[in-house]
Specification:
Layout: H1 8-20, H2 35-39, H3 43-47, H4 55-58, E1 66-70, H5 76-85, E2 90-95, H6 98-110, E3 116-120, E4 133-137, H7 148-158, E5 159-166, H8 179-182, H9 185-189
Parallel strand pairs: 1-2, 1-4, 2-3, 4-5
Amino acid sequence: MSKDLMFKDEVQQLVADAYRALDAPGGPAARHYTDGQLAALPDGAREWLLGVGNPTAWAGLRPGEDVADLGCGAGPDTILAAREIGAGGHATGIDLLPEMVERARANAAAAGLDNVTFLQGEIEDVPLADGSVDVVLANGTINLSARKSRVLAEAHRILRPGGRLCAPDLTIREDELPTEVLTHPAAWAG
């Protein structure tokens, strides 16, 4: 993207800095997953469960489908999706940070999966072709973007006709929070 709309670059930097500052987060979002799902994840993926929900529980994934996971982090939802869609399907995780992409690739290798790919990219400019996936997952990542409508437009663009979006996320009522809270870096990255 050539133009920084709505302070996108600054917000991306805040989010990147916040995630790079994490060392061993301990999987705070594990409470959203079943014991069976947690057991299906390698230790590294469980450690980096940072989302706000469990999109694979609600997406209605079917064998043979193609899935995109926007803001995949260390890949736990991408890995779970890849297991559900099986060898006939393919799961692609996309993350802004190269270190998260490498972590996700290592986790997928540890899980023994070969129907998964991880790409570095922006969720506001998804590096996938038009109409290339059946399902888009985004676990607590749309709220990290300063251009939420652009993320949703990209999800729509890459979905096949009849495709599905499953995006557990956070919302706030801006009129109920003071400006110093709304503009604080933690409000964007936490």
